[in-house]
Each structure stands twice: as C-alpha cells, then as structure tokens.
Specification:
Blueprint: E1 3-9, H1 17-25, E2 33-37, H2 56-67, E3 70-74, H3 84-93, E4 106-113, H4 120-132, E5 136-137, E6 144-146, H5 160-181
The structure holds ligand FNR.
Ligand FNR binds near residues 11, 77, 113 and 115.
Organism: Lampropedia puyangensis
Protein name: NAD(P)H-dependent oxidoreductase
Pfam family, one: FMN_red
C-alpha cells in the first residue's frame, strides 16, 4: 500500500550529516513510499502567546505531519540532548491545547553522530518527549548510528557496511507504519 512519510531532520545546517544520512536512508524504501522533508528552520521560537494565531510556517508543518501516514525523525545529538530546533517543532505541533499533532501519530527515531555513543542520549530524550505526546513510536531496534567514513557514499547511498542493518531497520519502520497507522 502506498504511504507518505514526513521526515524531520533535527539539524538546520546545510552541511548536516543527519540530512545526508536521511536522504540516503530513504533510498532503501520501495518506490510506493513517498517521503516529504518537513522544513523546520523557518519556525519562530515557540511562544504560547501565539497559540490562537499560529504562524503560516507552523500551520504548514502541522498539516504536513497530520497528512503523513508516519513520521521519521532523524536527529543529531547536541550537548547530550536533542537540538533546540527539534524541540521547537515538537512544542509548536503539540499546540494549541487539544490540537496535538503528535498524538496517535506513528513514528520512529534515528540519528547519527561521529561520537562513540552516537545519538543514544538524544534519542532517549526524544523518545520520552514524543511518547508523552502520544506518538506511537517504534520500540526497536535502536539505531544509534556512528557517522564513519563510508556510511553515506559519494553517490548518496548507504554504504555497504551498514546497508543490511539499516535496510532491516527501515523495513521494520514501514511495517510499523502499515500496522499502526490504520489503528491510529
Ligand atoms: C555536537 N556534537 C555532539 N555529538 C555527540 O555525539 N554528542 C553530543 O552531545 C554533541 N554535542 C554537540 C553540540 C553542538 C552544539 C554541536 C554543534 C555538535 C557533534 C555533532 O554530532 C556533529 O556536529 C554532527 O555533525 C551534528 O549533526 P548535523 O547537525 O551535522 O546533522
């Protein structure tokens, strides 16, 4: 069955390794899955004073997440947690009260970092945050992906060493969406 997946990259950098990784990862999916990257760099800082009058960029992001069958969050780890830009979009899309876009949304989290523990701590925080919002997150397998030479090839594909694991991970995510999106 064809699906649409909203992809949120937690980094705003034009050089983001997580964006490159996300672009390579989605190439492992079958052709009937459409991936839509959600731009989060143009969102204002969340302020509940604006809840009744959300910015056009906020409405766009909420609509993109709402329309998707699933959400894939690909995040770096900044100072042992998630980047502020990612927390910002989570806060925006959780409001106004009673219109929480994350509730019952099916999703998964992944991310990469050159560090030894990769993005494990950021992912743990993110799991707690999104679970509290009611997001139906894939519970495992974890993918704390270390960004080493060859993870993403010059052609922008996933390198040979990580290919099998990440293919399995993505297949499980798409199956998770298939099973749970209908119930959500
Ligand atoms: C980092 N980096 C980092 N890496 C890590 O594994 N754990 C961490 O806590 C941090 N902390 C951190 C803070 C800040 C402010 C920056 C800018 C970077 C390094 C980080 O993994 C590396 O810069 C990646 O390139 C970030 O991913 P993107 O933004 O390129 O996708």
């Amino acid at each position: 069955m064809s699906k649409t997946i909203a992809v949120i990259v937690g980094s705003l950098s034009v050089k983001s390794i997580n964006r490159r990784f996300a672009q390579a990862l989605i190439k492992l999916a079958p052709a009937d899955v459409a991936f839509e990257f959600v731009e989060i760099g143009d969102l204002p800082l969340y302020n509940y004073d604006d809840d009744a009058n959300q910015a056009a960029s906020v409405k766009r992001v909420k609509a993109q997440i709402q329309a998707a069958d699933g959400v894939l969050v690909v995040t770096p780890e900044y100072n042992r947690s998630i980047p502020a830009a990612l927390k910002n979009v989570i806060d925006h899309a959780s409001r106004p009260y009673g219109d929480n876009t994350w509730n019952n949304k099916v999703g998964a989290i992944i991310g990469t970092s050159p560090g030894g523990v990769a993005t494990a701590l950021a992912q743990n925080h993110l799991r707690a945050i999104l679970s509290a919002q009611g997001t139906i997150l894939m519970q495992g397998p974890d993918a704390f992906v270390q960004f080493t030479e060859g993870l993403v090839t010059e052609q922008g594909t996933i390198g040979e060493k990580s290919h099998a694991y990440l293919q399995g991970w993505l297949n499980k995510f798409l199956a998770w969406v298939e099973t749970n999106a209908a119930k959500a």
